[in-house]
Each structure stands twice: as C-alpha cells, then as structure tokens.
Amino acid sequence: MLAATSALVLAHAPARAGNDVTQETLLKADSDTSNWITYGRDLSAHRYSPLNQINRANVKNLKVTWTLQLGGVEGGGIWSHGGLEGTPIIQDGFMYATDGWGSVYKIDMQKGHGELVWKMDPKTDHDWAGAVACCGVDNRGVALWGDQVISHTLDGRMIATNKETGEILWQRQIADPDKSESITAAPLVIKDMAITGVAGGEYGVRGWIAATDLNTHKEIWRTYTIPAKGEPGSETWKDSYNAAANGGGATWVTGTYDPQTNTLFWGVGNPGPDWDHEFRPGDNLYSDSTLALDADTGKLKWHYQYTPNDAFDYDAVSESVLVDLPGNGGKQRLSLAAQRNGFAYALDRDTGKFLWGLPFVKQLNWTKGLDPNTGKPLEYDPKLDVQIYQAAVTPTRANAVSLICPGSMGGKNWTPSAYNPDLKLWYIPVIESCNRISNKEAPKNPKLKPGEGFTGGGPTDPVKITGSIAAVDVTTGKLVAKHETEFPQLGGVVATPELIFAGQPDGELIALDAKSLEKLWSFQTGAGLNAPPISFAVNGKQYIAILAGLGGAWDKWYIDGTPGLRKIQPGSTLYVFSVD
Ligand SMILES: O=C(O)c1cc(C(=O)O)c2c(n1)C(=O)C(=O)c1cc(C(=O)O)[nH]c1-2
Ligand SMILES: [Ca+2]
C-alpha cells in the first residue's frame, strides 16, 4: 500500500524539477562530469571535460557513432549560405544545438543514435539579418535556465523556449535592427539573468552588454562599451565630431563569471571605423578591452585595454579564462585571454593588473613587444593622439597600404581556448596570418543606413595563412608546445585529461596528446569545421561531438589566404564519436 502511494506521489511530482537549471547547477558545472551545461562548459570557460574513457591509449579506435543532419544552410542578405559555429549544450542525455539562423534543435541521444525531439524555428529575417552580419550567418549556441532554453537570433532577439515542448514562451527584441545591431554570441545565464553581447562593430554601432531578467523578461541593466560625452573614458575620444557615437566596441563573444566576487568578464571588439585610427584620436576606450562588471548592476569594476587606438582591427573579444593557482603569497586569481593582436595575457582578475603576456603566433610585426610592467605595446605613448606602433606596418593615410602580422582575423578570433587544470596547460587555437591593410579616410558624421558598413579601409590576403595550436604553461607564462596545422584554427578546442580535440576548416577533426600536442588521431568529416568540439557522457559512456558546416567570415573575406579551402561546400551535420 505504502509503495503504491509513493509511486503515485512520484508520478504526480513535477517531472522536470530535477533537471531545471538553477544558479546552483551552473556553479557546479565543472564537477558535473556527464553534462556540458553552459557555453564554456563552466562559468570560467575551461572547456575541460574530466571524462577519460577516450584517452591516449584508445583514441586510435575513436569512430563515428552517429550523425544527424540539421538545417540552416540557406543564405540571406550578402551571405550565400549559413554555417555552424555553435557549442552544443548537453543535459541528461539531451543535446540543444543551434544553426546559424538561430533555430534550436533538441536531440535525444539516449538510444545510441540521435533523434530530433523538436526544432524551434525563430523565423529570422534572412534578408535583413544577412545584410547586417559582417561575418557570416552565425549563432554560437544556447543557455539553459529553469525548464527553458534561452537563445539569440541574428536579427537581434532573445527567445525563451519550453525545454519539453519546443514552444516559444516569450521573446524580446534586444538589439536594434535600425542601427545595424545583430547578435551572434550565445547568451550567458547567471543568477536568473541572461547576459547578451551585441555585434555590429563594422557598421558604426555603439557597443553594449545587457542583462535580461528571466522572470520578468525585462532589462535589468545595459552597459555601453563606448562612454557617452562626459562619462569616464570619453576623454579618450579626442576628435571634435563625436566619433564615439559610431565608435564600435561590439561584444560578440560570450563572457565568463566569477561567483566569488560576482564579476562578469566580457571582451570588447574593434573601435569604429576599423583601420582609420586617425579618424579617432585618443585611446578609444573601451574598445579592444576586457571589462570586469558587477553582475547585478553592470557597473564597471575595472578595464584592461590591449591595443589602444587600434589601426589593425584587433577586436579583444576573447573569452577571459578564469584560473586559480596556488602561489607563494596566497592564491593567484588569474584572468587569461589570448587576443587577436597575437599576445596571450594574464591579468589579476580582482584588479585588472597586468601580470604577464607572450606572443603565441609565429609572425608579429605591429609592435616590438609588450612592456613587462604594463603589458602595453612598447611603443605606446599615452601623450600621443594617434598611436604609431611600428611605423612601417601601421596603416595610416600617409602609409595607406601595409602588411600586418597577425592579420586582421588574428592571432586568435572568437574560437574558444581550453584549459587543463591538472596539467595547468592552456590551449590556444591560432590563426598564423599576415594580411594587407589598405587605409581609407572615413567620412565624418556619417549618415548610416542599416546594413551599410562603416570602416576606414579593408584587408586583402596575398599571403598564405596557416594555423597552429599553442600550449601555454600558466604557472610560468611560457609557450611549451605548438602543433602546426595546414589551415587556420577556426573552431576552437576542447581539453580532456590526456587529449585535446580541434576541428579543422578542411573537415578534419584531430586529437592531440595533451602534453606534447603530438597528433594521435584524425577523422575527415567531409565538411568545413568551424565549431568547437565538446565532450560529454550519456548513460555513462563518453562521446565527442562537433557541428560540421562551413560558416563564419572566412570563406567570404579571407579565402585568398587559404586557396586549399576554396572547394569546401556548405553543409549542416552533427557528428558524434565514441570508442566501443
Ligand atoms: O565587431 C563586430 O561586431 C564583429 C562581429 C563578428 C560576429 O558577430 O561574428 C565578427 C567580427 N566582428 C570580426 O571582426 C571577425 O573577424 C569575425 C569572424 C567571425 C566568424 O564568425 O567567423 N565573426 C566575426
Ligand atoms: Ca570586428
């Protein structure tokens, strides 16, 4: 009798309560071995899966277990096709993945293959959104909250979908289409809020980061990355024609969060107009910076700017990887970021103080190096209005064409790095590039229309571009290994105890030894890979998964640097691997 009653009670208990995502779930993400519950796997962006069933000894037996075709390949605006850049989210045997147009797919993985449970199609405006996206039809993934899936669309919306049914519960227009604002980053959920970053740095936007209250669906705060007149930092825009109004500073890569100090860390992109830095005398805060924000108010705690008065298009949007190290005088609390300008930086994450930096690319010619005390480029002179780092290669109106290294994609672009906390190694996906920049004077007081770019020149790619994966020992700040690749790293990495995985743009998924970076395994997916691989478990079995589908900026803007990638065709496939 008693047993039957209990069963009845169980049957009536809210079925989903057990896997509702709360702040507690998110704070424990790193010790949740099976799942991948938030964009960077944990709120520190380690992208480290402790699963070791697939290891150094057996990775040679890694095979495709199942695949599933997704959609979103169709083009729109200036783009001939959509692509896949997303990090799938994994919870209790289900995957939540996106395509470039923001459709969300819930996939049941518990039967040994993938079965679509539902697809939420947000009906993104292909013509408009495709016309204001600088860099592809991209969507980097979802976040979970309660029993909802929170996602973004390229046309600037936040959408909450019922996790069980796939029904849209509510949506809100968060970025302004009339200002050429779009959204490509995955939302970051913390404390019943979803944090959104905006794209549009090449279209004269004024960047921001916004927090949405997931209970009321209203905005809690919005912090602009380019100060308004009179605000602190506005003195770093020294022109007389209000360049800051179109000053760029987009925030198009998902940030990280430190619960101990309730701080959000978020990267800021290029100042606008790109390349014509004489147009915007001054350091152009807070472009090319990492911002540390109070999560409840969006108030700035500190900032660190990497490339003041940027003439190179070195967006500093890279994720801040939060790492704690035991130190002599107490714990070191680091914030690491590998930037597009070719340098990897460690900052004190409580103060923003520069600790160390190193070049991670083979060729770097825009500066002689970093000041060991401040981390600023050695030639940086705060008294100058216009920074000329290395005069021979800095594009200016007088020196209109130059070859810069790294090229304007980097270095490292949005593609996420990974950190192995046991080995204390940080893995950086590298674009080994130089490109040619042509400077062109930008018009003052531009009357911009949606979809009309606002730049001061542009890049071309006369030199072959390759790639590498770099391993940095974060206890010493030294590069300890490098694995050279034929093509640039456009998808990012995941780390496991003994391995790292990375997708190549020519379709190869590779596994490297975590210490030596020696190549141990590869599989040719037959698709362009520009999404981050992930590792997770279903019913106790470890899998590696990656979304495969040519996307992003490369094939439109940078293909001349990689002729070998010209033949890659669009596609949209989920690959899942395991060992028997
Ligand atoms: O300043 C911006 O707003 C912005 C946005 C994006 C984006 O949202 O994808 C990219 C860039 N800039 C950019 O400079 C860039 O190189 C780039 C590459 C990619 C990509 O997905 O391959 N996106 C972007
Ligand atoms: Ca940019």
UniProtKB/TrEMBL annotation:
Entry keywords, A to Z: Calcium, Disulfide bond, Metal-binding, Oxidoreductase, PQQ
Domain Pyrrolo-quinoline quinone repeat: 36-357
Matches recorded under Pfam families: PQQ (PF01011)
Protein name: Quinonprotein alcohol dehydrogenase
Annotated S-S bridges: C134-C135
Family statement drawn from the similarity comment of this UniProt entry: Belongs to the bacterial PQQ dehydrogenase family.
Active site per the UniProt annotation: D313 (proton acceptor)
Keyword Oxidoreductase part of the UniProt annotation: yes
